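The following block was generated as part of the benchmark described in Methods. Ligand: fe (iii) ion.
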Amino acid sequence: MKTLIKNIGLLAGISESTRKEGPDMGVVHCLKDAWLLVDGDIIAGFGGKSVDESSPNAEETLPESDLILDAEGAMLMPAFCDSHTHVVYAGSRLKEFEDKIKGLSYAEIAARGGGILNSADRTHSASEEDLYRQSMERVLEMMAKGSGAIEIKSGYGLNTADELKMLRVIKRIADSVPAHIKATFLGAHAVARGMSKEDYVKQVCDEMIPAVAAEKLAEYVDVFCEKGFFSPEDTDLILTSAGKYGMKVKLHANQLHVSGGVQVGVKHNALSVDHLERTTDAEIACLKGSVTMPTMLPGASFFLREPYGNAKGFIENGLGVALASDYNPGSSPSGDMRFIMALGCIWMRLTPEQAFNAVTLNGAYAMGLSNIVGSIAKGKSANLILTKQGFNEIGSIAYLYQTPFIRKVFLKGKEI
Ligand code: NIG
Ligand code: FE
């Protein structure tokens, strides 16, 4: 089945690269008066006129198709790629929201046994079915808001059985939605109640990672490398174990302190190091020339009133940046990637084009998917957002961040 989308005012995000870095981050390649052909679940071709008025534009003949969709001059762009979420959880943390308003910090709430441990208690007592139902609602909402590729972490189980329960829920979600879903094992999110950190790290390395690998329930391993959680040395042990089982690495690093997390992540060729609210020149130097995508989570900075991180500095030093939602009950209860773009522009001073690349191609890279999604390219999965009429400038996505802008979302070629 071939669908031709014609009369596209702006076809945005055309790229054959696997990631965008440095000055290239500020460039979003576009065509105007364009068309795009979807064949089954892939982008089979596209064309249009150069946005540069001085280039001559020959008239093109449109390809044949079974179905024609008139974009009515609106924008067609890649669906968002959200490379860091914790959307599988039970219950809410509304009480902690109120505590935060009264002045308690994220670290103080965690130190009192709230935070991640609070969600772990709720996740423990929820049935797999209930966990699936609650989590699916969030994933469906994210898809409706334009996310087409989503990474989901475990990390509210904190024992082998409950971590596997979470990962099975992620697998079930992956099997039931058209979005591309990547699963990450985050057993080292917090030390389980009643255990010493040493014993827990040993359990993560010797029991949980082998069990997750045996059931092929996750491709990536993540650690919350942070004071009061897991040290760089603990992280090194866990990531070494991940490597033994052929699992790749993503990391929570430098959220509340300059933790040494970035350095451990780069040492283990992490796909991404995430958060980065607090970094110095040493982290920039370490990331240069690495395979690791610096990933920032402005939704968590907003919700916890924490710094937004030095995205501009990274880009000025030739690095790329991805932005992700961090959707979770404690530090970022939203998976709205447009809001994330707006925060990136307003608080991190990213240009709209930099923010666009950060939530599309670089997000795809940060979950090992940039050969499949994240840009308009022939042969890539047809994961597309068609905007409402009138939205045909990159800047307006973040500028008009509360105005509904989606007319249709296509994932794997199908309208959702
Ligand atoms: O990325 N910082 C650690 N993990 C999550 C928060 C998890 C939670 O509070 O439930 C984050 O912000
Ligand atoms: Fe997180």
